[in-house]
């Protein structure tokens, strides 16, 4: 147990020493970045000297506007180039992916959905027409079906054959002939 206590105490001491070193390194990096920033600003942005007359101020403003326009144009050009290259990268990666042919088809689930729900999902709030498929069907009257049934009974030749077949049918034919 004494060895364990010594090992954990040493481990904790090393850990705290590493954290202290890391904190000092972070402070040094922040200070170096600040100095680098100051140097860059001093190099690229000279101190602004405001002229006394109105005409000189207007000329200074025109120069600043021209610089701002040129910087905006450069920024826009670089953004467009970046968008083009990212689009090309996506296209090329898709082509590469297709050429490999190792794409997985996602597992599809069957979903029971009515036609109304499907149109509502596809069209959103634009869908107002109710698609009741049964409403478009032709309605059949019962009187028509009874007439058709009578016609079917008369015209069905199978019933006549069944009646004439066997001994009973011959007996009927014999009795009808007398």
TrEMBL record:
One Gene Ontology term from the biological process aspect of the record: cardiac muscle contraction
Pfam families found in the cross-reference section: Troponin
Keyword Coiled coil among UniProt keywords: yes
GO molecular function: actin binding
SUPFAM superfamilies with a match to the protein in the record: Troponin coil-coiled subunits
GO cellular component, as recorded: troponin complex
InterPro entries documented for this protein: Troponin, Troponin_I, Troponin_sf
Keywords linked to the UniProt accession: Acetylation, Actin-binding, Coiled coil, Muscle protein
Cell cycle among keywords: no
Residue stretches in coiled coil: 14-102
Subunit organization: Binds to actin and tropomyosin.
Entry similarity comment: Belongs to the troponin I family.
Function field: Troponin I is the inhibitory subunit of troponin, the thin filament regulatory complex which confers calcium-sensitivity to striated muscle actomyosin ATPase activity.
PANTHER family per UniProt: TROPONIN I, TROPONIN I, FAST SKELETAL MUSCLE
Protein name: Troponin I, fast skeletal muscle
